[in-house]
Design a protein that fits this description.
This protein is an alpha/beta fold and 384 residues long. The protein is built from 13 helices and 12 strands.
Length: 384
């Protein structure tokens, strides 16, 4: 049976070059990068080369890159490490759970939290951020690209607001890294999080950009690894993999790969809207990363469509992978004012570098029939 994978915002398959780069460090090159003998120096050199690659992708200095266990730790380290009881944090209603649940924890610890709303396209209004500022505001945390809709946020404007107010600025760039060019200076952020498995690297590794002289407190205590920002022996194979993935991601920004993915995504959306009645693209009209399409299919449950597609070897998602199985409608689509019914009837399709045009054609050969079958079984659907 044919198969096609369209859940690259959930996780990506490692590129073959990434696996090959990691392979020696899973075997003979096993040294601890804190050791001074030859094996340790070899591991340290590999870690620092990976740090340079990540820094190049983000447009920062290598010394400003801290390796973490993933995007969630990077977000938590950035937020928890910058605030204390009595401080105020501004975030948005569409953040990933890594940010929202971190803020919920901080609220219980005595930190005030303001979550600014978004419009129907899923965009934060910078004026809303400005209006939320207080004398005790310590940090602004707004994501770069939404994980469910792919909608990009106006970070450069928010960065200027943060700078004018002398407030620290963090962004979760997990779903943006490798899909759009990133420059931390252009954004104006002090902290930025990425994750390896969202850009065809390994799972269990991420990185946090920490602008020089940012007073970040570590949330993991132990040795002095990562310049004191993150204790614990570095995961050398995964770091090497992230470095190679970052190198390939930077190349992909310039070689036409993302243009091809955008073309396939746009063609897919156009065909769905033409061939499947009662459908809409969530976030349409807003700037988005090139690989993500979140589509509302009226009269059916998104999870039922995901299951139906899976029977044909097609992987898609009814929302964030981190919230799968919760039974709750997407908080992102709800925050956009689309309602619980529409949120439950939407499916995310996200492409990656290992997809092909044939994958999209296969998806379109299956999708209209799967939607039709589900609608015909629904008492809510009446064909006119």
């Amino acid at each position: 049976m044919p198969s096609a994978y369209f859940d690259n915002n959930g996780t990506t398959q490692m590129l073959p070059q990434v696996l090959e780069a990691m392979r020696p460090f899973l075997g003979e090159s096993f040294g601890n990068p804190s050791s001074v003998y030859a094996r340790g120096r070899e591991a340290r050199a590999a870690v620092e080369a990976a740090r340079e690659s990540v820094a190049h992708l983000l447009g920062c200095a290598a010394r400003e890159v801290v390796f973490t266990s993933g995007g969630t730790e990077a977000d938590n380290a950035a937020i928890v490490g910058m605030v204390a009881a009595g401080d105020h944090v501004i975030t948005s209603t569409i953040e990933h759970d890594a940010v929202l649940n971190c803020c919920a924890y901080l609220k219980r610890m005595g930190v005030a939290i303001t979550a600014v709303p978004v419009n129907r396209q899923g965009r934060v209004d910078p004026d809303g951020v400005r209006a939320a500022l207080r004398p005790e505001t310590r940090l602004i945390s707004v994501m770069l690209a939404n994980n469910e809709t792919g909608v990009l946020q106006p970070l450069e404007e928010i960065g200027r607001i943060a700078a004018d107010a002398d407030v620290w600025f963090h962004t979760d760039a997990v779903q943006a890294a490798g899909k759009i060019p990133i420059s931390v200076d252009r954004i104006g952020c002090d902290l930025l999080a990425i994750s390896g498995h969202k850009l065809h690297g390994p799972q269990g590794i991420g990185a946090l950009y920490v602008r020089r002289n940012t007073p970040l407190r570590p949330i993991i205590h132990g040795g002095h690894q990562e310049r004191g920002h993150r204790a614990g022996t570095e995961n050398v194979p995964a770091i090497v993999g992230l470095g190679k993935a970052a190198e390939l991601a930077a190349a992909g920004l310039a070689d036409g790969t993302l243009d091809r993915i955008r073309t396939w995504r746009d063609r897919f959306e156009a065909q769905v809207l033409e061939r499947v009645e009662s459908t809409e693209v969530n976030g349409a009209g807003a700037p988005r990363v090139p690989n993500t399409s979140n589509i509302f299919f009226e009269y059916i449950l998104g999870e039922a469509l995901v299951v139906a597609l899976d029977r044909h070897g097609i992987a898609a998602s009814a929302g964030s992978a981190c919230s799968a199985g919760s039974g709750e409608p997407s908080h992102v689509l709800a925050a956009m004012g689309l309602g619980a019914t529409r949120a439950r009837s939407s499916v995310r399709f996200s492409l990656g570098k290992l997809n092909s045009e044939a994958d999209v054609e296969y998806l379109m050969s299956v999708l209209p029939g799967a939607v039709r079958d589900l609608r015909e079984a629904s008492p809510l659907y009446r064909r006119t």
